[in-house]
Amino acid sequence: MNFPMKFSPLVWMVLMVFFQSANTANAQLRFNVYSGGYFNITEYSGYMTPEGSHQFHIQYAGQQINEENWSISARINGPIRPMSGENMSGLPFPADRIRFRFTHDDGNPPTLAEIGVSTSFIPFNAIGETIIIPKSKAPIAYQSQYGGSMQFHLYFSMQVVGGTYLDQFKNRMPYQIIVYTVPVTFTLYDHKGVVLGYQDVQYSIQVNQSLSGTPPAEPAYSIEILGDAHDSRLEFGNINNYVEGVTATYIDALKINANTGYTITVKAIASAMTAVSDGQATMPVSVIYVRLQPGSTSVPNGNYEEIALSNNYQPLFTTADKREGPQFFNITYRTAGNDERLLNARSGVYATTLLYQLVPQ
Description:
Keywords: Signal. The protein has three helices and 24 strands. The protein is mainly beta and about 350 residues long.
């Protein structure tokens, strides 16, 4: 598929700077996840659950609640391995080929629009949490002197992405299917990172030996954050981290498809990161520097730039070269040593969301 040259795909991720964290629970708020199921892959196009078949149900009973800046995450609990047998690759099923997408709500507040979430697909991380709702813009709120209840439902779909990669995850034995178990924990947090509720869900993915249809072609223009880079972290654990700075590199973390020249840009959604612990303390995003480096496959010629983050798009890489097929880049985040803004910061976990943009030429 060809898009106009002004088409600019976007992809988002969460970047966190860690100083500390904590967890407890709230008994009056109920968090139920109606999900799970069996994903039977019979075609190269993959698998999509029916719309409306999966949901979060959040319910409160009492006199008053006002949970602001709440969030929801998902965690795959361990490598996705076959229940029995061995696949062609000998590797776990790739977590980032399993995706989550909000579809609609039941109309009760807070709605998806009020919460401020995207209805784009979110790939799961193989390690760590996948942020489903980074920080709700609308609170879970209710008040009545006589007591009562409120509830709302958020509906979502699950997808197993199609492609020729599925051939590597068929059963090594001819004529045998293979089934993978995917144990997932969904967790609801308050603004301090305290657990308000969680639920374990199990999915099963069956890959059949004979897949029908034609594998989907790589799009002309696309941009995708892969693996652990969805939940990037810079951690300060000792004084040397403040004196020398901290660096984190994610290998083959950015995937690009473009059959013309292009520019990759990035920005933070705000000029400051917010402390997860209380939502009050802030830190400028400009303490973090970002750069791209060539990955396992990338265009041979181009201009790389290192930038200090801001809430305006800045170029990381520009090339006039054309190349068919996916291109991969490593992403490096770092802080400078002896940065007074970090030395004077209140301890805690600071988070922001980054938007990567592909701008075709």
